[in-house]
Amino acid sequence: MSRADLSQDAVLDGRGPTYGSVDTRGNAAIPSHESNDITPLQAFYARNKGLLIIFLSQMLLSIMFVGLKLMTVLDKPLPTFELVAIRMGITWICCRAYMFSTGISSPNLGPKGVRRWLIIRSVVGFFGVFGLYYSIQHMPLSDATVLTFLAPTMTSLIGFMFLRQPLSWKQALAGLTSLSGVILIARPAFLFRNGEIKAHVFDTTEAQRMVAVCVGLVGVLATSVAYTSIQIIGKRAHPMHAISYYSLCCVIMGSIGMFITGSEWVLPNRWTFILTLLFIGLFGFIAQVLLTVGLQHETASRGTLAMYIQIVFTVTFEYLALGTIPSRLSIAGAVIIIASAIYVAQLSKTKSVVLPIGDMEEANGLLDEQAQARRSDSESGGRGSNPQDIV
User: Domain count of the chain?
Assistant: First the structure.
């Protein structure tokens, strides 16, 4: 049964409300040119409002990632589990404040009928964000970020294996091609000379780098599974329900991870330490909200392509903050992975699209809703639905 069928059945059976729809027209309405007061700049903004908001969200997200990286170069670096717990704890507080201030229904447990899927999505989502943060700690930031762009291809494979969604040979070929990009980023010793590896890796051994790549790939897989669960949930839950479950689950599981591994909690000892942690949490939440709003003003294909500006911001900020320049092999691997991801996204733009972001999967649902709404409009003769903001 498809996600659309699940969502329709939920509404018809009275199991819960739907939470809004997106603007299927894609772009913001351009002001009427009957007025001579419209300037070219205003017209440009009206046509590209969604893209500009998405660009801003990606800039904030890249700044957040740099903040996470800075937490690893302290005299006493924060354990990955603690980073996840603190970052998601701040997100949970912001999310709860938003839900109660806007009067979202069922703010504590979420709508009945989807709570099981909200829990499943949250648990696998934790492994997704843990994999991302671990790879950020033990790899160059740009390399760790590029690995997240495998998510569209991975999601297509999972949909094919478990949801019986179609998978073309072109998508499969793009997936195999992207693996060559992963190899260029990982640079295993049995394929590359040791000199090539050591020239571009700082403070990590070849073994640590390989572990970081493997953990990052597990995170990408978990992110793809989380997105699949979001497809099943559909519009039966508000995006903030998913974020609330997800962030609280990360706090709990991160704390459990600290206990199981016997890791020592690193307490802030400088005001810059505290400010950096606060900015990491706030920027992550604001980036999530901006991304969601931006996607409501964009088509699925343009919105997805706009996501890849993140790698430009990441490389720039990593160089400014850490003085790190990606190696030639990393750049080649990034080009292969991003090109494969864009190709898969273009093949899927009339179906569903997944965003290449490790800890912001909720926004993926908006792109999928846009694709479904656009197909519904086409089948009904072009009648559009009234846009209603989700966030």
Answer: 1
More confident residue, 357 or 44: 44
| Per-residue pLDDT tens over the stretch 129-160 | 999 999 998 888 888 888 888 877 787 788 78
Residue 122 lies in a domain: yes
Domain presence at residue 386: no
CA distances from 8 to 1, 230, 292, 391 (A): 11, 15, 23, 22
CB 4 within 8 A of CB 355: no
Element (H, E) at 148: none
Rounded Cα distance between 387 and 391, Å, is 12
Q: Is residue 209, in this structure, part of any structural domain at all?
A: yes
Instruction: Please write the tens of the pLDDT for every residue from 88-97.
Output: 999 899 999 9
Q: CA-CA distances (angstroms) from residue 120 to 232, 273, 287? A: 11, 33, 24
Residue 143's domain spans which residues?
52-378
Enclosing H/E stretch for 72? none
Tracing tokens 């996204």 back to the chain, one arrives at 345
In Å, what is the CA distance from 319 to each residue of 58, 62, 154? 17, 12, 29
Residue 184 forms part of a structural domain:
yes
CB neighbour list of residue 117: distance below 8 Å, 6 or more residues apart: 229, 232, 233
- The pLDDT value recorded for residue 306 is 76
Cβ-in-10-Å burial (0-12, 13-18, 19+) of 103 comes to exposed
Residue count of the chain: 391
Task: Report the C-alpha gap between 99 and 359 in whole angstroms.
Answer: 20
The CA-based angle 318-321-326, given to 5 degrees, is 30
